[in-house]
Amino acid sequence: MVKHIVMWTLNDEAKRDCEKITADLQKRFKSLLGVVDGLKAIEIGHNYNGGKYDLVLLCEFDSREAQEKYQTHPAHVAIKEIVHSLTCGRECADYKI
């Protein structure tokens, strides 16, 4: 199993609607379950603890190959474009368990 964690900093405009944006993105990311082969779990939340990052995404995949296919899957790419329009910083970590 592979875990994929992404953290984003929202741009100033998006920070004003953080809760609404988080809820919208949660629906969009959840819609990938059953669409992207090998994606077992996915969730996104607002970091209420302060710090540099506002949003955190956690995904679980069957394998690295499934994660690689997710990265280029058209449904994921469409969401990725939305996220890029709302954010100004990103960090990512991936690990196998």
Give an account of the 3D structure.
The protein has 97 residues and is an alpha+beta fold. It is built from 4 helices and 4 strands, in the order βααββααβ. The chain has a 4-stranded antiparallel beta sheet with strand order 2-3-1-4. It is globular and about 35 Å long. InterPro entries: Dabb (IPR013097), Dimeric_a/b-barrel (IPR011008). This is Dabb family protein.
List keywords for this structure.
four-stranded antiparallel sheet, 97 residues, 4 helices, Alpha-Beta Plaits, single chain, alpha+beta, 40% helix
Summarize the structure.
A hairpin with an 8-residue loop joins strand 2 and strand 3.
The string of secondary-structure elements, in order, is EHHEEHHE
Estimated structural class? alpha+beta
Just give the CATH class. Alpha Beta
Taken together, the total number of domains comes to 1
Query: CATH topology, which one?
Result: Alpha-Beta Plaits
Largest sheet: 4 strands, antiparallel
End-to-end CA span: 5 Å
Number of DSSP helices? 4
CATH A-level architecture: 2-Layer Sandwich
Strand order of the largest sheet: 2-3-1-4
Dominant shape: globular
